Amino acid sequence: MDKLIKIKEIFDSIQGEGPYVGYRQLFIRFCNCNLKCNYCDTEFSSSSDFVEYSPLALVERVKSFDLDKIHSISLTGGEPLLSVEFLKEFLPLVDKKIYLETNATLADKFDEIKAYVDIVSADIKLESATGIKDSLKFHDLFFMKCQGIETFAKIVFNSLITDEEIQSSALLAKKYGIELVLQPEMIDNKMSVTSDFCAKILDKFLEYYPKVRLIPQVHKFIDVR
């Protein structure tokens, strides 16, 4: 019997975060997450408004979009890696680049589908912004598993970011040679911190590691999903 998965929504839009900002992607939003970040603005609960798909049914739904205009398929959520058993059946059937958006805490589950993933958009969860404690030990293991795959990490920050968080996350990225994308926390469609503050935080990161960029959530500025 086919595995069924709850999908919150499927839509094509512009990627608004990270180094692939501006590319058109097909977004598949999975229900449920293993974390609860303070700043999370995404409705991904499986309590209502979802559609169940089998792997084959989801492939057919994906094919209903004009994939010639799509750079890649973004698996997002929620946390897609909670659905790894489904993904092991679905991903081999998809003939398009796979872009995984993940909270980077489920290294063993990622390892099960690593062969099918082209780009990893990972998070580094700062306690000051998310309320999540001791995340770096999980991120460290996750980034170790990502070696050999194009990977970058996003860091959402606000005015509470600490120098210790800056140093530890920068050195973690340096350990694995991954690019860091600093992303100021948004309140509605505005940054929660000033541009000057963003520039200062970027400079502090650059003291430890050169591969760091500041990219706000562009899709919120241009008002797309």
Total separate domains:
1
Radius of gyration: 17 Å
Structural class: alpha/beta
- The low-confidence parts are none
Described by the principal axes of the CA atoms, the overall outline is globular
Helix percentage: 25-40%
Major sheet strand order:
3-1-2-4-5-6-7-8-11
**Average pLDDT level:** 92
Count of β-strands = 11
- Through-space gap between termini: 34 Å
Write a structural description.
The chain is α/β, with parallel strands linked by helices and 225 residues long. It has helices at residues 55-63, 84-90, 107-113, 127-130, 136-145, 163-176, 195-206, 218-221; strands at 5-14, 24-30, 51-53, 72-76, 98-102, 119-123, 150-157, 179-184, 186-187, 190-191, 212-214. The strands form 2 sheets. The protein has a 9-stranded mixed sheet with strand order 3-1-2-4-5-6-7-8-11. A two-stranded antiparallel sheet has the order 9-10. Helix 1 (55-63) crosses helix 2 (84-90) and helix 3 (107-113) runs parallel beside helix 5 (136-145).
Keywords for this entry:
225 residues, globular, two-stranded antiparallel ribbon, single chain, TIM Barrel, alpha/beta
Secondary structure: elements and pairs:
Blueprint: E1 5-14, E2 24-30, E3 51-53, H1 55-63, E4 72-76, H2 84-90, E5 98-102, H3 107-113, E6 119-123, H4 127-130, H5 136-145, E7 150-157, H6 163-176, E8 179-184, E9 186-187, E10 190-191, H7 195-206, E11 212-214, H8 218-221
Parallel strand pairs: 2-4, 4-5, 5-6, 6-7, 7-8, 8-11
Antiparallel strand pairs: 1-2, 1-3, 9-10
Helix pairs in contact: 1-2, 3-5, 5-6, 6-7
Briefly summarize what is shown:
The protein contains eight helices and eleven strands.
